[in-house]
Design brief:
With about 350 residues, the chain is an alpha/beta fold. Helices cover about 35% and strands about 15% of the residues. Strands 1-2-4-3-5-6-9-10 form an 8-stranded mixed β-sheet, sandwiched between helices. The chain has a two-stranded antiparallel ribbon with strand order 7-8. Helix 11 links the parallel strand 9 and strand 10.
Amino acid sequence: MSRLALLVALAACSRSAVPPAPDKPAPPPPPAAPVAGAKGKLVTRQVPSASLGVTKDVVVYEPAGYDADPNRRWPVYYFLHGLGLDETSWTKSGQLHEVADKLGVQAIIVMPDADDSFYVNAVTPVSYDACMKNGEGLFFPVQPLSSKCVKTPAYESWITKDLVAWTDATYRTIASKQGRAIVGLSMGGFGALQLAMRHKDLYAAAGSHSGVDALLYKGPFPYAPGKVELFTQVAEPEDMIVKWLVRLFGKDIANWRAHDPASLVAELSPGELALYLDCGTEDIFKLDNGARYLHDLLEARKIPHTFYIGPGKHDFSFWTPRLPETFKFLAANVSAPK
């Protein structure tokens, strides 16, 4: 018996006239360890969005153990898809739920559909009727129009207002910054970073897998520290993707900077937001260069972050094997169930 325990025992046995201290409420029990082999549940929900004027499909991973304790609250990880993909991509192509089951991830994972929006409130209005008729206003007009056409292209508001509010109202969440994280791949990596940096009150952590981490990065290729050139104006676009970006951001370079993760770093303080970045060295869009640039900007501002560049392409053969590291990062920087 330790000296402290012995003193406590002697005091309890004494006939001192000092009245006993009042009982303190017992602390809540720690989260139960995940049962080996237990699996979470995938469900598809239809979520109305006032910002978009339509209802969107959202895939939700309910972790093993969620139904077991009606009093426990859970963190939420929002996982965003890439250009041309949808809310099912992380599970159908990326097997995210299988990785989460294997690791015993203790979080609700919400995967929304955000079309080809880059997760911004687009400056160019859309015609819902024209979209439903012939796909006008879509990057890929061959997609199912009934699920892709919206009345107002306000996707930043859809994710940060409508979806967060719906999730907190529907599930037993830790409804605070420390209980939320946002992660994405490619277009979704850009979305995760810029949404988290623009809404620092909402998310404790953000992650980008092969994302557009530096929207205005012009060169060089390969990346060379100290020699970076950035776009300073919006020229008449020829590239299909750039034309689409002009439709979203407009021709005012200030609006591009206002959404560019590499520009938003200037407004970020150490400890304000946990960040994760990765990219493959064989990325077809050469996005590893922008990732290296953003990494150096974060280093210069002494902002802690997790960074990985390694062999891999711009596909799930790179992203899925990185998921264990992503979940490890999220668990270290977001609240556990309580």
